[in-house]
């Protein structure tokens, strides 16, 4: 009968048994998760309970009010106004800015070194390739801390003292009469404005109005130039002829900032030897230089390996295909090779930036006053607030890392292979 | 007419002509590899200048080095104003850099432990070594603990007895179903550990007092400390990392969330803050009055740190496996753990070997950070040697010695990983 063929094959309904919680894959994951949740809750409760009891035993409370009390210690490198009468919170902010400055400087230098070394390691020239290999292997296999100490020792031991620059029998001289490398730091010229517009009061930050104005003009020029380029591309796609833009583009990019600088009376303030030390100019302290060089050259070795892998990952066929389409070498690089190489290269590069940011916390070794030395060092020692201070410190580093890795995820989503 | 003049056909090949004079020998080599274009020439010249400059500035310093002296001032006296290295400091203090303040009469113990470690590692690293040695590898951690820290030999024995008890119960209870058996085995092992093993250790110690002179953690330092922390961290972080990576790829939302949060937290903060947590904050988080060894706390923190990185490396390997492998394992009827053990992990781990070894190297280098919480690693010892009156102001010789040893360990690890990659390579191109 036809009915027999369409007989519904429904499973017989099983009554729920307790053993199914372990043996039936439909329920087992719930059992495991509830068990894990219970363990987690118990663990957290245990830790919190211990902490509360320990704090009570020590007679401490849990509060962040120490951030608003007077710090009383000096910080030798500050990007914003700070003196010993200001609060611990302010000191932590100064430290955070020092961390960020060091991280940005090191990321830039490490990228330059890493890209150069990565390209040179693939060069056909045996001497250059061997030398770069030695650089990469030596720096990758020796701890960063040791490198930072080595550069710190170079800056304090192997570099002339300021009074070696003095008099007729000077044993050291300034580079181009502008830069002095001494064991008290590196002195470089500083930008100065003859017509000072004063400062912009933003509460915490007080940036100079001149600098803000120059920055705004430069950004505007870049935006206008991009609009011009877009227009040129549109004309090209409609008519097939790209309008000549290089001189308008150069005018737009260079003229307004230069005019503005001239109007402000921009000049450089050179460091000069007065008494026992250099005066004027910008002083980059030894601790900053040691950290900067140590982090950049060490991380540069890792970046070199990433760059090498990125270049090797692009098959030769891509270049040949681009040539076959009639693209010139420059355009082949810009339109075909780079977009693909960057997709391979950028994620590890950003994770190196992440490492640099976290490794700035080694500043303590050479006395660099970063966030860890201010908030996580002197402040904790003075106030005895280890718990609050360390939690805050971890939170700040965690947010920095999450910002950087978040930007990586955005980038990955944009350039990732779109498979359909 | 064209038929009359027949085309000439050569009967035999002409001998090859000599290449033009610029295309042979040294000249060709020079032109093709060193002076191919102006950029290559510039690079060659620059690197030669750099090499010569380095050699000229470093070689007198190395050649005139002093190996026999008791202080830096004596060194300078011997050198008499010439520039030279004073490696006498290494000769004077190398035992301290290697062992810290470990009692000198007991140096044989860490050395023996190191040699035994090499023996224990041999069957794991090199397949031709007989498999039976793996039993020794399993026994090694307890043995090394005894050798390095001293104390009664029966303590690790009773710790191993816990595993034995668990295994025996597991064997007896398999008939009751695997889940029940595992729970029973865990419970009995725990019970043995809490109630029985302490008294067994005491009784055995009284019967047969096998013990070595105890050495406290404060006396340990130098490369001994680095290797203890590094090797323990490395050997614990791999299995824990595998578990965490599986947790992150789990289909259970809760397990996945916990794994992700743990990994991202650990990877987001610098190791140094975790070490400070170990030294400053652990007293807050543990029951009042608990106080355990600083080295153990550091090992725990370093292991947690390395585990998170390891989990990410292995997750990369798991993600790189084609989906077909998972489906094929399921089609064969393997359950989750069998599929992981027999099909997925062997391939995923093979893919992630470079990453795994890189994070091992990173972990070993990171052991130097313990200097910030007052442990005496080689860098801390170099600072304390520099603080003595005899060796005040000595930098480079110590840095060279420490850097050289670290380089030796890390470089051999990376070479081994290359060897392993070649050995495990199954797809021959």
Question: Could you walk me through the main structural features you see in this protein, from its secondary elements to its overall organization?
Answer:
By secondary structure, chain A is mainly alpha-helical. Chain A folds into three domains: 14-44, no CATH class; 92-173 and 284-420, MetI-like (MetI-like fold, Orthogonal Bundle), CATH 1.10.3720.10; 190-269, no CATH class. Helices cover 63% and strands 6% of the residues of chain A. In chain A, the strands form three sheets. Chain A has a three-stranded antiparallel beta sheet with strand order 1-2-7. The longest helix of chain A is centred in the N-terminal third of the chain and has 34 residues, at 25-58. The longest helix of chain B is centred in the middle third of the chain and has 30 residues, at 178-207. A two-stranded antiparallel sheet of chain B has the order 1-2.
Question: Secondary structure elements and their pairing?
Answer:
The complex is a heterodimer of chains A (420) and B (429).
Chain A: H1 2-5, H2 20-23, H3 25-58, H4 88-121, H5 126-140, H6 144-157, E1 180-182, E2 185-188, E3 190-193, H7 209-239, H8 246-264, E4 266-269, E5 272-274, E6 277-279, E7 282-284, H9 286-313, H10 316-324, H11 329-359, H12 371-383, H13 386-415
Antiparallel strand pairs in A: 1-2, 2-7, 3-4, 5-6
Helix pairs in contact in A: 4-5, 4-9, 4-11, 4-12, 5-9, 6-9, 7-8, 9-11, 10-11, 11-13, 12-13
Chain B: H1 25-34, H2 38-63, H3 72-79, H4 88-99, H5 108-125, H6 134-149, E1 151-152, H7 154-173, H8 178-207, E2 211-212, H9 222-248, H10 253-268, H11 271-285, H12 294-320, H13 323-331, H14 336-351, H15 353-366, H16 378-387, H17 396-424
